[in-house]
Amino acid sequence: MENSRNVKIITGLSKEIFQTEIYPQRKPVILRGVDIGDCKEKWTKEYLAENGGSVEVKIHVSKTHQMDFIHKNFLYRSLPFNELLRRASEEKHTEYFIDENEKYYLRALGTGDPRKDIADIRNDFPNLAKDIVIPELFDASQFFSSVLRVASKSMQLWTHYDVTRFFI
Length: 168
Hints:
alpha+beta, Jelly Rolls, globular, 7 strands, single chain
């Protein structure tokens, strides 16, 4: 294990080591050498646009590259996924909501009711999900969500953590 800015970098990971030594610490780590599938090679903006399709997605749009949740310096809008990819890869826009320099951020939510449905790339973007291997570091019954995130170059988000939701 080596350190990168006080974040451990771990190679040669096993499920047992992850569950007994890494996960209980509940601290960020970088996992190297874990098979996550063909997405590393395949996922260009063109491939994502073609295989993600034109499904409508809810996005954050901001005038600045530093989105701030406290001051809410962004708008919520919708775009087809392939259109979001095109715009997020541009420096200046000919089509825009606020101004030609706006930045975009997608945190894919569940396919139905975003307040109730859990994000799962397998349901939300099945043509992209086939390129991903979710490492078996937990039992399948513990799988909670898989969130697809897309952002404009240089986008910075507020520091946060996502709270696990429980349903009864």
